[in-house]
Amino acid sequence: MSITVAEAGVANASVPGIPLKGLRGAIARNMTLGWQAPRVAMGVDVDVSACQAWLRAQPVAQGGAKPTITACVLRATALALAGHPRMNALLKDNVIECQSSVHLGLAVALDEGLMVPVIRDAGTKPVAQLAQETRELATGTRAGQLPPKAYQGATFTVTNLGMTGIDWFTPVLNPPQVGILGVSSVRERAVVRDGQVCVAAMTTLTLVFDHRAIDGYPAAQFLRAVKTYLEAPDSLSGRP
Predict the structure, then answer these.
(1) 121 falls within a domain
(2) What span, in angstroms and rounded, lies between the C-alpha atoms of 147 and 139?
(3) pTM to 2 decimals?
(4) 218 touches 207 (CB < 8 A)
(5) Distance of CA 124 to CAs 68, 134, 149, 160, Å?
(6) Quick one: how far is CA 140 from the chain centroid?
(7) Options 84, 194, 210, 211, the catalytic residue
(8) In the prediction, which pLDDT does 227 show?
(9) Any catalytic annotation for residue 215?
């Protein structure tokens, strides 16, 4: 069955347009700025089998939130940022401003767009507290109950699309931050250890960074530090 140009025009005219204004417009402007940066992406596979076992032994937070892999990633990221301050930085007016505190932005998907509330002083908070704050921020964001300041002041962003089942993705920078970490789904995969094939729970972390602020080698060291913390979960209880 063929469709004439006139018929196609009528069909297209019935589809409502989505103007780039309001929240959608703000996202478009910010993503354009992030895309203009000379960005580099690198990824690493992480075995979270030990992390899953460690989580099963952790107490539920006072607010009732159960510790999750996301909370572990936030904790590992905060610890790694404390040891790699060039990644915990903002690039403003051609000046790299390394931040003394770690404030993690957590991407939350809404029907109308993406919001990024901030976990303040994430480096000082244990996994259970991060799990509780993650749940509260996500709930508050989706309900539209958070004040504007709740979305301000992040020094680094973590975005998790693991619940969608994807294997990997490369997120766009959230300027003026110089780095963002993408978290993919956790799946059982065949891996080789000491010459033997076994099954492990694996995820892929993707780091995107602004090459003006940090070079590939130190960025790789940071990403490796996140991986090391997650694969040795007892270390998540330590201090930065």
Answers:
(1) yes
(2) 13
(3) 0.87
(4) no
(5) 18, 15, 20, 21
(6) 18
(7) 211
(8) 98
(9) yes
Label the pairing between strands 187-193 and 179-183.
unpaired
Residue 14 pLDDT greater than 70, yes or no: no
Q: What is the pLDDT of residues 63-121, one digit of tens each?
A: 788 899 999 999 999 999 999 999 999 999 999 999 999 999 999 988 877 889 999 99
Look at the block and give the residue holding tokens 């995107």.
208
Instruction: For 144, list phi and psi in degrees, rounded to 5.
Output: 70, 30
The one-letter amino acid at 91: L
Q: Evaluate whether residue 5 is within a structural domain.
A: no
Residue 207's closest CA among 145, 159, 141? 159
34 falls within a domain: no
In this structure, the number of other CB atoms found within 10 A of the CB of residue 162 comes to: 18
For residue 54, give the CATH number of its domain: 3.30.559.10
- 119 HSE (CA, 13 A, CB side): 32
Range of the domain at 147: 39-237
- CB within 8 Å of 154: residues ≥ 6 apart: 103, 104, 105, 116, 118, 174, 177
The answer as to whether 24 is a domain residue is: no
154 is written with which tokens? 């992040």
Q: Match 């790694």 to its residue by tokens.
A: 80
Q: Is 211 known to be catalytic?
A: yes
**Number of domains present in the structure of the chain:** 1
Query: Span 222-232, mean pLDDT?
Result: 97
Catalytic residue among 47, 111, 210, 215: 215
